[in-house]
Amino acid sequence: xxxxxxxxxxxxxxxxxxxxxRRGQLVVTGRVKDLILFRGRNIxxxxxxxxxxxxxxxxxxxxxxxxxxxxxxxxxxILLVQAGRRGEDDLSTLEDxxxxxxxxxxxxxxxIVFVAPGSLPKTSSGKLARxxxxxxxxxxxxx
Length: 143
Known about the structure:
Layout: H1 2-6, E1 17-22, E2 25-31, E3 36-38, E4 41-43, H2 45-56, E5 63-68, E6 76-82, H3 88-106, E7 111-115, H4 130-138
Parallel strand pairs: 6-7
Antiparallel strand pairs: 1-2, 3-4, 5-6
Helix pairs in contact: 2-3
């Protein structure tokens, strides 16, 4: 039954992955459930993470972006950032740099939450687990 539920009428399986064909090769660009809808725009969480990582000299995988529903109707973008051992002044400066970089790169603002190193959830294959991070955030496990 579960397999039948994800089969499309044309016989292809709907995995939730998004991509396109280029020169006969499938290029996977992301997952439908990870896509952030912000004020009518589709934004990839990876773009937010990359902007933050460049601005803050973070390693890949040290930030994770997702959105949560807001009672006003707009989604709120949350960015969890592994802060390491930095002082409060350093975090304030880091937060300003990240806000500026995300705003310049994507024209959006986000709520930045600093988290402990190693606390961002990952899949069994080592990829960032955004849905798990969102659930943990909603449960109050961060900040």
